[in-house]
Design the sequence.
């Protein structure tokens, strides 16, 4: 039993402070103090508050804290108090100011309420800086990530872009709505110039093209209140998570991307991963929750909103379009289709309506007539090299003999290509001899010898057997001889240099 309990128990038993003090062994004043605290409903063991030097100045401290909205500096306030007659040190003032500021914040603290969503009501989107990849001009260039999510199902869509202009925004918005399978009632985003032109008396003035796009898809575009975590936190969290997995850093050990297409594939893989795992807040899989939310989404028009995408062009049979009397290439699969082109600074942007929605399919540097812009990656299976020369033939066996010979390995492929290029004679008979030799010594040595023969230009009768024998004796490939005009197997004439010369010392003897 504590001493406080003993004192109060003694007082309850005797009803007298002096008698209780004798029983508890304390001073009667202590008994009266404990009894008074208990009767006042205060903790009996609370410390005694003694007068302080700062007490007469506390009203002035509270006044200045209220006047400065909790931002006044303690050292400045201490100087004011010292001029008023305060003799304490600055440390006492700092403690009093800290307590006053905490009391002021408690009385002016902002109230937060969780954002309660419902299916089919809100779509949020925002932008984030993506990784650096090689642009259309072959130089490293900063990319951007368009990140959108449905607030109820937490279904995310991440799209890589080169910029965040109005045309790009409308393209990404169309793609997002088609991926989620419908349009919600509202779309919430930040106050950018592509959405909000300006604020007048704190009223946002919307961009007319954005309003027209929202009317086309049947949704209303809103902007969030500045510094409001309830309305903006979801989209910012989507951007943060996407950047953590897609932008190379020391933490995620990513090595970077060689092209914009690789970044696009990485964004699709990221969306598949996050949309098919359980969300921490909702304890649901977003892809499964999307099926429920799609019942509350309204259908979107089949035709996309293209008012801001530029002029229309038809893709010719050579996969090019003409803009300003200049031909620009497009990816395969668009021949005969209509695309939209627009000049964006010193670049030409080509947009197509694909199955996934509006998609930027190509971006070229603007050129002048007579100088077409052809991206060789748009023609992956073309038989010509980038310099116009034909590609090396790719051997493909048709008869059983050809298939068996090419089945020896890559050395056989190289030997056939090089032998045909130099016009070697009796190629088929030499192929048969190589198969017979492979049946005797094995496929590996013969295929390696064929590779050496192709590199050295040795296509004569018996060359293959000689190379196999030479390698079997332990010789390395580095000792091979290239059959050209600088090397010959004919004996030299250096031995005839001394023919007819008189031997030394013969004249002395005579």
Sequence:
């Amino acid at each position: 039993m504590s001493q406080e309990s003993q004192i109060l128990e003694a007082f309850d038993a005797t009803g007298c402070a002096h008698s209780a003090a004798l029983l508890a062994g304390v001073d009667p004043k202590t008994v009266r103090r404990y009894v008074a605290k208990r009767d006042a409903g205060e903790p009996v063991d609370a410390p005694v508050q003694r007068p302080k030097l700062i007490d007469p100045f506390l009203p002035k401290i509270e006044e200045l804290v209220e006047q400065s909205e909790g931002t006044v500096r303690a050292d400045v306030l201490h100087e004011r108090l010292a001029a008023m007659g305060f003799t304490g040190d600055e440390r006492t003032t700092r403690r009093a100011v800290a307590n006053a500021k905490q009391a002021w914040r408690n009385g002016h603290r902002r109230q937060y309420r969780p954002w309660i969503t419902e299916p089919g009501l809100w779509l949020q989107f925002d932008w984030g800086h993506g990784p650096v990849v090689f642009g259309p001009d072959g130089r490293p260039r900063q990319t951007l990530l368009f990140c959108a999510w449905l607030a109820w199902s937490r279904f995310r869509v991440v799209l890589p872009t080169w910029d965040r202009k109005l045309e790009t925004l409308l393209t990404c918005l169309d793609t997002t709505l088609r991926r989620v399978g419908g349009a919600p009632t509202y779309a919430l985003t930040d106050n950018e110039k592509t959405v909000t032109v300006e604020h007048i008396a704190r009223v946002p003035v919307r961009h007319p093209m954005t309003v027209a796009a929202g009317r086309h898809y049947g949704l209303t575009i809103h902007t969030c209140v500045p510094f409001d975590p309830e309305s903006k936190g979801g989209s910012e969290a989507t951007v943060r998570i996407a950047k953590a997995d897609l932008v190379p850093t020391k933490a995620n050990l990513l090595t970077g991307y060689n092209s914009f297409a690789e970044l696009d594939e990485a964004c699709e893989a990221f969306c598949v991963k996050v949309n098919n795992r359980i969300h921490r807040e909702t304890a649901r899989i977003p892809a499964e929750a999307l099926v429920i939310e799609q019942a509350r989404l309204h259908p979107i028009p089949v035709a996309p909103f293209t008012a801001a995408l530029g002029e229309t062009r038809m893709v010719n049979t050579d996969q090019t379009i003409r803009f300003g009397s200049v031909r620009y290439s497009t990816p395969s699969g668009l021949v005969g289709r209509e695309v939209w082109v627009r000049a964006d600074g010193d670049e030409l942007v080509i947009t197509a309506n694909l199955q996934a929605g509006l998609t930027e399919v190509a971006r070229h540097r603007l050129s002048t007539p007579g100088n077409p812009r052809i991206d060789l990656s748009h023609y992956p299976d073309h038989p010509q090299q980038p310099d116009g020369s034909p590609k090396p033939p790719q051997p493909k066996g048709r008869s059983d003999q050809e298939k068996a010979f090419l089945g020896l390995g890559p050395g056989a492929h190289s030997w056939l290509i090089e032998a045909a290029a130099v016009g070697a004679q009796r190629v088929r008979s030499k192929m048969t001899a190589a198969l017979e030799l492979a049946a005797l010594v094995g496929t590996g040595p013969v295929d390696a010898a064929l590779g050496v023969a192709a590199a050295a230009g040795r296509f004569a009768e018996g060359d293959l057997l000689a190379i196999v024998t030479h390698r079997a004796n332990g010789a390395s490939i580095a000792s091979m001889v290239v059959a050209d005009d600088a090397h010959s197997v004919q004996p030299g004439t250096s031995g005839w240099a001394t023919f007819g010369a008189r031997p030394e010392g013969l004249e002395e003897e005579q």
